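WP5 quarterly update. Target: Sugar ABC transporter permease. Source organism: Streptomyces lavendulocolor. Length: 332 aa.
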Amino acid sequence: MTTTAIEKTGGRTVPQRDPGAEHGPRRRPGRLRALGLPYLLLLPALVLEILVHLVPMLIGIVMSFKELTQFFIRDWGTAPWAGLDNYAVSVDFDAPVGEALLKSFLTTCLFTLLSVGLCWLIGTAAAVFMQETFRGRGLLRTLFLVPYALPVYAAVITWAFMFQRDNGLINHVLHDQLGLTDSPPFWLIGENSFITLLVVSVWKGWPFAFLIMMAGLQNIPREIYEAAALDGAGVWQQVRRITLPSLRPVNQVLVLVLFLWTFNDFNTPFVLFGRAAPESADLISLHIYQSSFQTWNFGTGSAMSVLLLLFLLVVTGLYLTLTSRGRKSADA
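Structure tokens (predicted):
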């Protein structure tokens, strides 16, 4: 059907044809381009993700099935096919290689548990404290974020100097000024190296937890706390009944991110202890590095890396499943 419009000109009426009647509804010329714009903007990030993460990961998986030693570094593609031998060596906990890997894995689990727990506890306490209004709060917030803003290498090198036995600041305060030790202890070797690693990890990790918890606390209305205070709830009851339940979605993401960052941390032990970490602070990331670049057995090192990846994927999947079920039951 043809639609017309009537226009009055002077004393007569002139029918006018609707220009869109014959051609149907017009599409906006930029609609298709607008639909493809998000994908075009994501293309550089996708290409970098493939080149930086996926391609090296696939190469590492292939290397784990090869007998890749120092004799095949120039042309690793010609290395003999080893099948599952590298994985068998890595999980043989009765042999020296597997036993050392298991000890490193258990050390890393303990270190991650303590570091993530302390980072979360200190960050949450500081975020709750910073919700109160007092003079100098803005300056204190800035100071709390300094460890997170500093470059990792600069911060860890500074800590390494502070933990020196003879001329470090830590021993100067503990031994020379306070007299808490009989002799200056060694912090970068021996059993104390685990404490050193934990202190540095918590120091540079808790400001991230503080920042995330601060953002989460901004979404909790102050009226809820005021109503709870009128009902006689104390500070601890407000934190337990209001703050922590309201921050459950934030905590789920925060704990997962801290776990992955801490478990895979390589920079901190490498800068603190060098290529060979003490046995008490032998994290699995540095242990895999030593197995690959010191013994020149890249096949076994790649197999260890793949096993670590599978472990992290399984733990992450279980964690997300459990937390999603807990969220659904809480909402119900």
